[in-house]
Amino acid sequence: MRALDAKRWPTACGRLTLLSAAGVLVLGVVLTAVPSVSAAVPWSARSKPSPGNEGTLNGIACPSAGSCAAVGYLGDRTLIESWNNSEWSIVPSPDRGLTSMLEGVACQSKSSCEAVGDYSSNGLPRTLVESSNGAGWSIVPSPDRGITSNLNAVFCISARSCVAVGSYASDSGLAQSLIESWNGIAWSIAPSPTLVSKQSALNGVSCVSSKSCIAVGDHGSATLSESWNGKAWSVVPSPTPGSYGGLSGVSCSSARSCVAVGNYSDGTGSAASILPRSLVESWNGRAWSVVPGPSPSVAYLYGVSCVSAESCKAVGDYATESHLHQTLVESWNGTSWSVSASPTPATAYLYGVSCTSTRACKAVGEYVGNSGLGPTVALIESWNGIAWSL
């Protein structure tokens, strides 16, 4: 599970520090209920096909309402599922080393997709990039940096222009942000700011052109945003409410309109004060600002997708009063954020979302049956503008 499973974050990546600590402190504290949902809009969930135990989907990309690719892992192997406008199917995907997993995916069309993650053959993660031409997936050579390297997200402006972000560990073991770019022929490491005083990682990236990209993550206990202007990457100041904060995903509908999501904590030292809440920040082309929104007392947002400045969906999970994590969906209508009703098994998480219009979105994650005691199974939820359905 992304929020609690240290296996997913073998290096000091951003989400692990704050989220896993919060997961431990949830027990024994009072949790508030999820805020009232906006208009009774039902969701429904499904996992089809069911690939067996330990299945998780981390990212999804839909170039059209009738075509999607979802990526993750199944045990120690990569997992890719494909949507053909009528059903989901498992697609064969290659692996490297002893363990392989995919974290993010970007598709220009159903015949042009890139997926990123990491693999390990000796206990140390290295970058993993896989590409699809519509006929099948294959591993594409990708560079590594430092002792360990991993990629968390990818965005493609075209089939010949992609950006992937993650982190690497230097010889001292300090994690730093990692940015790689694709020019249609090869992946290469892109020079990026080095923040040597604290651990840093990039978890999400979004571009509107070859000269305009935003990447987000965390630096120490604060949010991190980096911007590409076509020539160089630079750090852009971003606010961190409370004492701890981090950003997990970002979506830009234009160079002057981006939304980033994550979580933050007031964290004064006591268990009750460190409870993480969902965080939403907005970019207007000049500066980031925190956007007020609803949040249960223990809540995380991992992914966001905006089809315009007036329409966004963000997904994650929240903890109930009985300490079970359940799906969380928040919606933006151009004026305010609200919590939307979503179907959820006893224990469930949503990690990625992709919208092609205000009436077509798909979200992916995982759930655990038997009140959190059963096997982990890949989870897919769909939105048609009226209801979330199979």
- Kindly report the average pLDDT value: 86
Strand content: over 45%
- Radius of gyration over all CA atoms, rounded: 19 Å
Under the CATH scheme, the architecture is 7 Propeller
Helix count, DSSP H or I runs of 4 or more residues: 2
The coarse silhouette is: globular
The CATH superfamily turns out to be YVTN repeat-like/Quinoprotein amine dehydrogenase
- For the record, the CATH class is Mainly Beta
Low-confidence runs: 1-32, 36-44
Oligomer: single chain
Helix content: under 10%
DSSP, total strands = 29
Concise overview:
The chain has 390 residues and is mainly beta.
Kindly describe this structure:
- It is a single chain.
- The protein is mainly beta.
- It has one domain (6-389): Methylamine Dehydrogenase, Chain H (7 Propeller).
- It has two helices and 29 strands.
- It has helices spanning 14-25, 369-372; strands at residues 45-46, 55-64, 67-74, 77-83, 88-91, 99-109, 112-120, 125-132, 137-140, 148-158, 161-169, 175-182, 187-189, 200-209, 212-219, 222-228, 233-235, 244-254, 257-265, 277-283, 288-290, 299-308, 311-319, 325-332, 337-340, 347-357, 360-368, 376-383, 388-389.
- The longest helix has 12 residues, at 14-25.
- The protein starts with 13 loop residues before the first helix and ends with a strand.
- The model is unreliable at 1-32 and 36-44 (pLDDT under 50).
